[in-house]
Each structure stands twice: as structure tokens, then as C-alpha cells.
Amino acid sequence: MGKCVLAVDDSKTMRDMVSFTLRGAGYTVVEADNGVTALKALQAAAKVDVIITDVNMPEMDGITLVRKIRAQPQHAGTPVLILTTESDQSKKDEGRSAGATGWIVKPFSPDKLLQIVAKVCP
Amino acid sequence: MELKEGNGRLEIELPTVVDLPVAAELRDILLDALARDSAADVVLKAASVERLSTAAVQVVLSASGGFKGAARRFEVETPSAAVTETFTQLGLASDLQKLV
Amino acid sequence: MADDQSYDLTRFKATYFEECAELLAAAEETLTRLQEGGASADDLNAVFRCVHSIKGGGGAFAFEDLVHFAHVFETSMDALRSGRAELTPHVADILVRGNDVLGDFVRAAQEETALPADHGADVKAQLASILTGGTPAPAPKPAAAAPPAPAPAKTGFATWTIRLTPAPGLLKTGNDPLLMVRELAGLGDMDVAVDASRLPALAEMDALAAYLAWTFTLVTDKGRAAIEEVFEFVAGDSADVVIEQLGDAVLAEEGDGWGLFAPMPPAADAVAAPVQAAAAPTAGAHPPGAKPAGGEAGAGGIHTSSIRVDLDRVDRLVNMVGELVITQAMLGQQASGFSIESHPELVQGLQELSHHTRELQESVMAIRAQPVKALFSRAPRLVRDLSTKLGKQARLVMSGEGTEVDKTVIEQLSDPLTHLIRNSLDHGIESPEERMANGKPAEGTIHLGAEHRSGRVIIQVSDDGKGIDRKRVLEKAIEKGLVDRGAQMTDEQIDQMIFAPGFSTAAQVSDVSGRGVGMDVVRRNIQDVGGRVVVQSTPGQGSRFILSLPLTLAVMDGMLVAVGNERYVLPLTNIVESLRPTAQQARTLVNVGDVLTLRGDYIRLIRLYDLFGIKNAITDSTRGLVVVVETEGGDRIGLLVDELLGQQQVVIKSLDSNYRPVEGISAATILGDGRVALILDVGALRIMGERLNRAQVEAAAAAQAAE
Questions:
Q1: Nearest Cβ partner for C193 among B53, B62, B91
Q2: How many independent structural domains does chain C possess?
Q3: Which H/E stretch holds residue C398?
Q4: In Å, what is the CA distance from C28 to each residue of C85, C117, C374, C399, C425?
Q5: Which residue range(s) make up the domain with C546?
Q6: pLDDT digits (tens, 9 = 90+) for C85-123
Q7: Distance from CA of residue C294 to its chain's centroid?
Q8: Chain C interface, best mutation among A48, A106, A119, by max C CB count within 10 A
């Protein structure tokens, strides 16, 4: 069964780039545009293997999303990657203490994205 | 996943994916099996496992110590390739051998 | 997977620019609110996110100037939202300018044009100064692009010892040592030794905590960086990682050890002794490198609440549905000879088809509908900027922003609406002194509202200013030869004169309303999208411009009329009534021409056959039918036709894009029988009729003089 990635970003451009790259590598991609819709998508999905989320989003930001995901027992170990910028060391730390698995630094190359997803994908 | 009595043994059939939440469930079931006032063997049926998390490996290792201490037999039956590979990669190939 | 070079970014650019446009508009709207002093933390966050998203995408496409500017902007927004800088009216103004400049950069990137190197440098400096509380400061260093990945040190093979001691919480971050072991093994030849000494008894165990620790011996030609990268996400907080090269021991990752904040799991009790002494390296640990994930498609499908569709696709759909409506009408006509008794299923089926077609059409039209909010969002800034410029005080009140209307209508209305608001501020609202002298509050009010009313959208722009100066309008109209001196005109008719071509009320062309664009252009623009505009005015109390617009441009309810062998469609919204006049009602007045007397009023009669040169038409008005129609200006005229063929919904086909503009015709349509019928433009017919009449009257007068 192909691995399924939930891509969460309020920027359609970013979602497109993540989706296109991952789909090209055989992943199934589900998209959501903020934390609230992401939680809904997570609930509706048969299975999600990896979650990639932006940090700054309306409705619910990425850090809160990570906490909410970790609060669900079935997602205690689901890898969650946060999309952040090079300068955002504080976001990496914040993400990590919220329970994020790792991070992807924007802007990223398709290869880097695939490498990191493969790194954490169980 | 549940504890079943059959052939005079307590059997647990592992699902295809034994990730973190399943490892927690497995720990509770094994604890239940360990607590039973019984001398019955406990068997983990592992033929269909495709993914085994490190958390699950820890549970199996800890349980094996527990059953050994209680002088009961604990066995991993027909481990799938994924199970063997995981134990080997984590440096626990010999530990698995003792359980098969 | 493709490498970087062949990875085609252009496919995402269209989405990016589309998104930028939305983000810039959203930021502008919010910034306007900030300027008005209604700042909330949410607003600051919203603007921060807009700028952040624009920067993020820009970075992916390597729009460097854009990213540099956005970064400065973002940094300032970040300081504001976190309270490190204060939002003053001055700062709000800077932010608005910042948004404008950011828009310049986006446009330049989109059009692939180069801006001057110092473009927006002043605004950038001002944005940066927000951080220092107003003292201009050098712009912060722009965000660097991702540094090139350090090249693996090609120092030949080396032997490394790596000790991995996870913190208990490691597994709960979604990391699994198994994946790290696999990744590490992919770097070279590896032996694994596990340390299970920390593993507690089952009863004491938290299944989600990490207890095992490992020591790896790795022979690889990849350097330290490659090994460090394996533990990138866990080293420090989630695990203690020690990397040592043989003979050259260096502590690689020395963060706060997990032991500082997480107590060691309690020691095993006496009942169980689960300690697995397994310090000896186990043989045969050479797994293959991590397998790339993926392969077959799978997993459940999820539906997000909205999707983005190219407008072309929607238009194609609208067109196809239009064709379907025509086909359905044609089938209905063909089958009109069948009775429900003789062909019950056919007739019933056609009725259902008609019903479903109509529903389908409405659904498709709804796709194109958008709230007028997008149109209104520019108004607050316009009012503020203009009132400052004109030395007037005005506030804007908006209502009905959620009212939906066709996207094209929204796009086309932008200019006319801007002009109407300008007009209200320039000519309507008086100076504060004048207002107070007249007992009005110094601050004038402009109301911009939208609502749905009987299948159309009504947009109103009203003000509580001085109203239209009818005396001056009339003088001007006479001066310009638009009306004859001594002509009897009602107040309403005078008011509508401001829409006449070439009419401009401003004594001097002002900087604001001027620019050579008059109200006639406003009306033309509104008519282009099938709308009408009228003005109501009360001297001393204000004016109200009422725009009536169709919900959609693609379909219209029309009345099919016959003139000779030709068929025309009259928009149903224009029709007042139709009648067969008596000989007393239809008269020809000297110096005026054909008129119809209707309940004491004279209505100009226009003979369509005359206007369009149609033969075999009924020329005697008492034998044909007169359709009384009303133009957007409120004028009534009578159109002489042979007969009414029935009311029907028609799909509008533009003549401009399919043929060329024709006077008196607004568009064309295809009838159920496949014939083309032209849709009449009532306003234009009135003007054509008057011209024709004048020519005929003059010809008659000339003939009389010659006798």
C-alpha cells in the first residue's frame, strides 16, 4: 500500500509543490489549508503515514496542530514535519517540544523533500 | 488484537502494522497474559507483520524477560521477514532466535 | 524523481501569482482596518501570514528582490504582532506603503520585468525603522537562500563509533531509532550493539517511551556531516548522540542531555529481572539502505471544502450548458405537437429535461458568483485618501458585502464604482465649514451597499452631500447643446443628464474626478455588463446612485418579437407593457414625429422596421403591436413590432467577440429552431430613434420650405 502524506499549508503554491513532488514519487497526498481542516482530514483519512505542516496558518497554526495530533493516542507516533524557514530556530524548538518529528527548511528542493519524508516515513 | 485461548496456549495474532499505538496495546495484552494464573504458553503469531516499530520490539523484549522470570514459555511463532529484519537491524537477532 | 534542473517550477508560478493577488488584497483590506485604528492581534497576525506566504513562495522561485523586501516587511510585522514594536497611525501608513511596494515586486516578477535597483528602498528603510521605534536603521540582512549542502568530505574510508542514547520521549515525537539505524547502515558497513539495560519490567513500562540504546561501528567514506544528518531531528533534546572517529574522538552533538529533564526510569523490581545483557556486538547487521517509500497508490480519499479551478474551464462549462439549454429548447419546440395522451413518456421526459437543465444552469452560474466584498475592499482607502486630498471629512459605511454576483461583473465594476465614489466625495460631500453652516455634521457619510432584489443585484452609492445642482446641470446641458433651451424637463430627467456623453459638471476639471472620464463612461461600463444606473438626488440632502446588475451575464429572460421575417429579443427587464394602439393613440406631431399617447403622456414611437430597414413588416401602428420599454435613464419609448412570439430564456452570445459591435444591438442568441436572433439594446434604440426622427423632421421641413 502506498504511503499517504497529509500536506497542510495555507499557501496553495506550497501545497502544490509538496503534492506534486510527493505524488511523482508514488505517495498519496491529502491536502488541508490550516490546522482545523487538517484535523478533519486526519479524522476522515483511512490512514496517514506522514504529516507535513506549515507553521503560520490562519484558524489553527502548525504548532497547535502538532499538539492536537499528539494528543490523539492513535497518532502518538505519526511523523509530523514542520515547514519552517532557515532563520526560524525558535520554531524548530517550539515544534520539537510540541512533539514534531522534524522540519523541512523552506525553500526546499524536491530531492530534499523526498529525502526527509523517506527519513521519517515508517 | 486479542488474547485467545487455543491448543492449551494463549495466542496473540499480531496485525500487519505494529506501530506505537499498537505497541501500547500489545503491552497491555501481554501484561494481562502474564498476570493470569496459568502455566499456559504465550504465543505471538507474527506471520503477517509488515512493519514493527522499535516500541513494539521493546515490549516483546520486556515481556520475554517477564515470562522467563515466571518460568513460562513465551514464543514468537513464524516471524515474517519484516520481523526478522527489524530485530536484526536493531542488533537483537540473537534475542529473537531465543524466542522462535 | 526528476533532479533540480528538470524540475519545472513554472507550473506552480501561475498558482503563486494568483495567490499573491489574493494575499495582497487581503493584506490591504486588513491594513486599512489597522489604519482606522481598529487593530486586533488577529489582524496583525493575518498581515504577517500574508507577507510570510508571499515570501515563502518567492523563495521557491528565487525572486530575490521580492524576498528581500518581504523579509524586511515580515520582520516588522513579526515585531508588531509580538508587541516588540508599537502600532501607531504613522506605522500603519508605512505598512500600507509596504504592501504597495510588495505588490510592485510581485508584479515585476510576474511580468518578468526588472524594477530599478533601489525600488522601494525608502519604504524598506521605513519598515526597518519600525523595529527601532522610528529611528531609521539599516535594513536587516535579507534572508539568505538555503546554504548549499556541505559537500561530503571525501577523505577516504574512516571508522566511526556512534553512540545513540534516546531520551524517553523520543518515540513520542514520531521518530523511531529503527529508521535511523537503517539510514546509518545505508552509509557503509555497520555493526550494531544494543544496550537493553534500561528496559524495565512490563508492568513498569511505558510502551511509548524509549529504553534501548545503541552503539554503532560504521565504516564509511561519507564524512561526519552525513552521519550527523541522520540524527538531525533528535540530537540534543530527544537523544544523546556521540560520534567519534577512530583515533580522533570528538563530541559531535552535545546539547542538553535528556537526563537533565527526564528522570531515569525506575529500576526493575525484585519480581522480574528483565535485564538483557547484550553488550556484545551482534553479527550480520548489514541491512540494505532505507527503501524509498511509495509505489502503488492507496489510502483513503479526502475532500477539502473547496477546490481551485481555472476560470477557462468554468467558462467552457457555462458555454456547454448554454448550448444544452438551446438544444433543450429546440427539442421542446419540436415536440410541442405531441400531446401527453399520445406520447406520455416523451412529454414527461422533456418536462424533466427542462427542469433539470434549468437547475444545472443555475448551479453552473453559482460557480462564477463571488461576493462583492472584493469590489468594496478598495473603497475605504479611496475614501480616506481622497478626503485628505480634498480637505473634506468623510466616513464610509458599507453593507451587503457578502452579496454574490458574477465574477465578470465584479471585475467590470471596479472602475465605475471607483469613479462614483470619487464623484460623491468631489461633488457631493461639502467642505466641513459648509456642512456646519448648513447644520450638518462636519463629517459626511458615504454609503456603499449591495443587495439582491428580484433576480438582480443592486449596488448603491449614496452620500449626504449637497445633491445635484439642477440649475447648473440644465445650463450646462443647454450650453453643450444636449437639450433645447426652453425644453420642459422633470427634475429626474435633469438628474439623468449627468450621464449624457460629453457632460461634465465640474466647473474645473479637478484632480480627482477629472481625467477626462465622465459619468457617461461609467454608464457605458455598467451597460457593458448588462447593468443600468440611475441617480436620485435631493438638493441639500444628498445623491444616490443605483446600479442594477444581472446576476449572470450568460443567460437572460427575454421576449421574442417578430418584425417582418426577422426575430429580435427584448430583455424582459426593460418591458413595461405592450398594446395595440388605436388611431387616436398613435399620432404624428409636427416637429416631433411619431408619438403614442398613453394615459395622458406622450411616448416616442420607434418603428423597428424603419430603424433596421426590414421589408414585409407591418407599418401601420394600429395593426401591429407597440411594446413600451423603459431605458435605464427612466425614459419610456414605444417599439413597433409585428407580434410577440413569447417569453423565453436566451443564452447570450457576444456580438463584439463573435462579430463586431452593432448599434442598437447588445448581443445575439440562438433560438430553439437554430436561428440567430439579435438582442435589442433599448437605450441605444432611443438614441437612434431620436436621430432618425430628427432627420425625418428636418427632411420634411426642408421639403415644405422647398414647396
A1: B91
A2: 5
A3: strand C394-399
A4: 20, 25, 11, 19, 21
A5: 376-503+516-550
A6: 888 888 888 999 999 999 999 999 888 888 888 888 888
A7: 37
A8: A119
